[in-house]
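Hello,

Our lab assistant flagged a job as stuck in the queue for most of the afternoon. It eventually completed. Since we weren't sure the result was trustworthy after the delay, we are filing this so someone can double-check. Below is the sequence as submitted and the structure that was eventually returned. Let us know if re-running is recommended.
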Amino acid sequence: MVYFRMRYLVKARLKSGKSKALLGSIDDGSLGKGSIAGDEYTYNMKEARLGSDGVATWVETCFCDPPLAEERPYWEEYFELVNVKDAHSRRNCRHENGTEPWACCNCDCTGKLEEKLRGQGEALLERLQKADFA
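-- returned structure --
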């Protein structure tokens, strides 16, 4: 596997009947357990926004080619991935253009996009916490 580090805009629809399980895995810290991506899954769910169309959106940092090769099985347990695309132009990526290896580790290249997302829809995690699973 070739490793890249890019930021992806992920759009995914929560699978029917998976809300309680997703919230439980976030709460008990088991979301993504066994993945090299570590705490990134929980961070993504804290940042994810839920649109009126029921689609959750977040920016994910990933080393894989193809995108989300490592993360996909973990996400697909709970979500139907609707769209995964570059969150910004690769030609502007300092890692990709060779000016700064591993630049994504501390990069703010998607800061404006992430700020914009925070103003859209509602926080997915808050929606999950409000849900009645009885």
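-- support follow-up --
The delay was a queue issue, not a problem with the job. The result is valid. The radius of gyration is 15 Å. The chain has one domain: 3-128.
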